[in-house]
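Q: Got a minute? One more chain.
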Amino acid sequence: MQITNSHFFSILLFLWAGPTAANNLPWQPITIADYVITSPASVELGKRLFAEPKLSGNNNISCQTCHHPDHGTSDGLSLGLGEGAEGIGPERMANSGIKKRVPRHSPTLFNLGHKSVIEQFWDGRVSFDPKAPSGFDSPAEDWLPKGLSSLTAVQATLPLTAQFEMAGNTGENEVIGAVRQRIDYAWPVVVERIIADDEYWAMLQNTYPDLQNRSQVNITHLANAIGDYINTQFRSFNAPIDAYARGEDMPLTESQKAGMALFYGKAQCDQCHSGALFSDQQYYSLGLPPMGPGRTRQWDPWARDVGRMGVSNQAQDAYAFKVPSLRNLAFTAPYGHNGAYATLEGIIKHHNNPIQALENYDRSQAILPAASKTLEFIDWVGFNDKREMQRIKQSIDIEPLQLSQEEIDQIIAFLDLLNEPDLIARIRDEQ
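A: Always. Here it is, folded:
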């Protein structure tokens, strides 16, 4: 990747003024005004729905199961086990009904309500589209209902209909049965479960005063509330780096200073992890190990994941995934679109020399609960395909960095400034 003029100028600022000068950060501090507007009643309803297993086909999993406060709004697993499994995080256990791991690492929820976020999911398959009837582009296509208020609300509708996430296997319940007919047939089934509960009906009336009777409730009322909850509860803009950006007295260690200079300099981290969210929201191939079943395209004969290409159908997007935010990394391991690395050191070393890291991947880095022999075979089948491995290598968008171990340690020290432990403690207390 080439260093742009603005990037070169930011390096000069660091060299001239020193990395301890707060106004050297090439982004403005986040404020409440940078987030989409939500209502307290909707947030309260969304909080309860977020933890509600009735939204799943077999009444045994909720949004919170895979986006848990104890695991930094993810699940602590490389690839999760969805509907039918038991337990939370790394203790989650498969049973005989689990036919497939969730093909991608559960993404974190921090700052999804920031107005600059215009696409969601690892491949960006949910985005704004003013030409679409609903105003959004999504896998539900024109079956997505009108009235959804945010990208996060749109996102909330989709796991409910996904077999390996929340809907369940064919023949197990009425939700997956409806999905098999048409995706929008499933949402009313879920809504019926919620409006049958008098307490939920009271909360819905409080949130949406225009509702006169239960039959008027549809999936948008539930999804908008879940979206408002996520967009509000997981705002992260009070980490030490934010205090530093605001010019507050925030002494840095020598390692953090050196790591900051590397982040915005030699290591070129900010070429992709830019701005206050530490993501340019673009898509790049890092050549991560082809672990797991992958989110295969409809007619793909291989168990693989081509990433953004599955949405764009552009060959140049093969194996490219959205740049994640770096906020709260200490709480959100493992790392990568398939959680291939259990440690920050591991994922940074992959950036340091992607091809070498791919060829010498240490499978013990993966955090995968024990499952059937079939699932465990699929976890590593991609490594057996030499042509697939070569395609992944040829897709890589980043150049080797040649960082020393000391420099990697310094970058990790800098990244600690992006953690907000008080926020994590609060959302754990409020779950």
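A: The two ends are 42 Å apart (CA to CA).
Q: Perfect, thanks.
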